[in-house]
Specification:
Number of helices: 21
Strand order of the largest sheet: 1-12-11-10-13-14
Strand content: 5-15%
Number of strands: 14
CATH topology of the largest domain: Rossmann fold
Radius of gyration: 24 Å
Largest sheet: 6 strands, mixed
Shape: globular
CATH superfamily of the largest domain: Nitrogenase molybdenum iron protein domain
């Protein structure tokens, strides 16, 4: 029996305007829901004389609508602290929570020696049962910490609260203090119950506060190196951090710590001795960067090592900050050495990819950064959005004074940080900082995603499956980028789906070599004929038919 083949060559994008598409999407919602979603779906306008449109973000997902989001616990344990190899991270809660935050990411690490500790292959949990839910779980938590210490002999143990812990009132912080005194190692807890914020973002903030309070600044040892930096918001998915680390070494930068890919607790403790903080994922890590500057005097700047041009730009900005001519020359030498292979890969791939459309709906800064890679091979990101962003991630940090703090944000403690009387040390004088800014080196700033996207692109915050289906129907993209929850539904529509949270089994995609890897993988995905053979089950024999109650 012959398998029907879809004729993609004759499939054209609908001629609807973005405004018409938005209107049609909203028509399916009840009035109140439509009114709220209208503020989270905007048509980008960034042309001459245009203000970047305001978008509503960091608000609760509408009950009953399934979106991409994870929980506060996932942001704290799964994202920020999970990639650290020598902290025993214990999930205080059901086994499913621990397994989920451990399984779903591909954070890699490379210990300094075969004897060095690496606990990332283990999933630690108290496995709360009905007995602990009724009578309390603190006793079981103490037993778990003791068992972890006896078995692993770690330098530190972190405790992560899940929803039941907050509901029954277990005090993980008092348990941490008690076990820290008993064991003589660093034990600290996070009140990161899943329901505590609107998304993973709350967990990032809580993780930043905890690691700054309990670890950063514990070791004042000054490491050798002339140009010392920290890389913040890089989690080494698929080995990205390995490529960036190698690049820094070749240029002459000394990497003190990475928060938290391929890192260790000792490096966190020593991070305040660096001379510059580099932020990759703005949303997940900007808090600790700001607190380190306030307390220790370490300035921060936004960088991006996704995309060849972005990598080169970031390296040049770093070199300009230090102002050493030998360093500047070395950076240019490395860029000149790497770019020919990049350009050759672009020229090979671009004829097969040019003009094709991409959509990117992922967390962190990835929906922004990965547009660089698509642009470099001639592809256009027609629509994008984040799952847990705040307005400044979209519009830029200039909007921060106008952002209203809602009730959910007030659930998260704001640390009162002051300059350390003994260790605060400005890395640059006021005159030097002013001169660098006049020369185009930006500090404490992030322009956001929307200013760099073209006019009439659709920006959707916290996209749901219905909207995903409609956007695919309207735009017929060549590739859709999201996470595991969206993967199979998208692929059943006959569109290749690229995971950018775990990379599936691809990567790394950072720096120059990573860009080449990405070009070739996207080329294979968007030009594979297999997608023509896919016909979704509901297209062949729909099993259910229904109408919305409000229709």
């Amino acid at each position: 029996m012959a398998i029907p083949i879809r004729d993609d060559e004759n499939l054209e994008m609908n001629e609807c305007s973005p405004d018409e598409i938005k209107k049609e999407i909203l028509e399916k919602y009840p009035t109140k829901v439509a009114r709220k979603r209208a503020k989270q779906i905007v048509i980008n306008k960034v042309g001459e004389g245009c203000e970047v449109p305001e978008i509503q973000a960091n608000v609760r997902t509408i009950p009953g609508i399934i979106t991409q989001r994870g929980c506060t616990y996932a942001g704290c344990k799964g994202v920020v602290l999970g990639p650290t190899r020598d902290i025993v991270n214990i999930t205080h809660g059901p086994v499913g929570c621990g397994f989920y935050s451990w399984l779903t990411r591909r954070n890699q690490t490379k210990p300094e020696s075969p004897e060095a500790e690496n606990f990332m292959t283990y999933c630690f949990t108290t496995d709360m049962q009905e007995e602990q839910i009724v009578f309390g779980g603190e006793k079981k938590l103490k037993q778990a910490i003791q068992e972890a210490y006896d078995t692993m002999k770690p330098k530190a143990i972190a405790i992560f609260s899940t929803c039941p812990v907050g509901l029954i009132g277990d005090d993980v912080h008092s348990v941490a203090r008690e076990m820290k005194e008993k064991l003589g190692i660093n034990v600290f807890g996070f009140s990161c119950e899943g329901y505590k914020g609107v998304s993973q973002s709350a967990g990032h903030h809580i993780a930043n506060n905890g690691i700054f309070t309990h670890v950063v600044g514990l070791d004042d040892t000054v490491r050798e190196g002339k140009f010392k930096v920290n890389l913040l918001g890089e989690y080494n998915i698929g080995g990205d951090a390995f490529l960036i680390e190698k690049l820094f070494e070749e240029c002459g930068f000394t990497l003190i710590s990475t928060f938290s890919g391929n890192s260790s607790i000792d490096k966190f403790a020593n991070a305040h001795t660096a001379d510059l903080n580099l932020i990759m994922c703005h949303r997940s890590i900007n808090y600790v960067a700001e607190m380190m500057e306030t307390k220790f005097g370490v300035p921060w700047m936004k960088v991006n090592f996704i995309g060849a041009e972005a990598s080169a730009k970031s390296l040049r900005k770093m070199a300009k900050y230090f102002g050493d001519q030998e360093l500047i020359d070395k950076v240019e030498e490395v860029i000149a050495r790497e770019m020919p292979a990049v350009i050759a890969a672009q020229e090979e791939v671009r004829p097969r990819c040019e003009g094709k459309l991409a959509m990117i709906f992922v967390g962190g800064s990835r929906a922004h950064h990965y547009q660089e890679l698509f642009r470099e091979i001639g592809m256009d990101t027609i629509s994008a959005g984040y799952e847990f962003a705040h307005r400044d991630d979209y519009e830029g940090r200039k909007v921060l004074p106008t952002v209203k703090v809602d009730a959910d944000s007030r659930n998260i403690e704001e640390l009162d940080v002051h300059p350390d009387p003994d260790r605060f040390r400005p890395r640059k004088t006021e005159e030097e900082m002013k001169r660098l800014q006049e020369e185009g080196v930006e500090f404490h700033d992030y322009d956001g995603m929307m200013p760099e996207m073209g006019d009439d692109k659709m920006i959707i915050d916290d996209i749901n499956q219905y909207e995903t289906d409609k956007m695919i129907e309207y735009y017929k993209p060549a590739i859709f980028c999201a996470g595991i929850k969206e993967k199979y539904a998208v692929q059943k529509s006959g569109v290749p789906m690229k995971q950018l949270h775990s990379y599936d089994y691809g990567g790394p995609y950072a720096a120059f070599q990573g860009a080449i890897n990405f070009y070739h993988e996207v080329d294979r995905m968007v030009n594979s004929k297999v997608w023509k053979y896919i016909k979704a089950p509901w297209q062949e024999s729909p099993e259910l038919a229904a109408k919305y109650a409000w229709e």
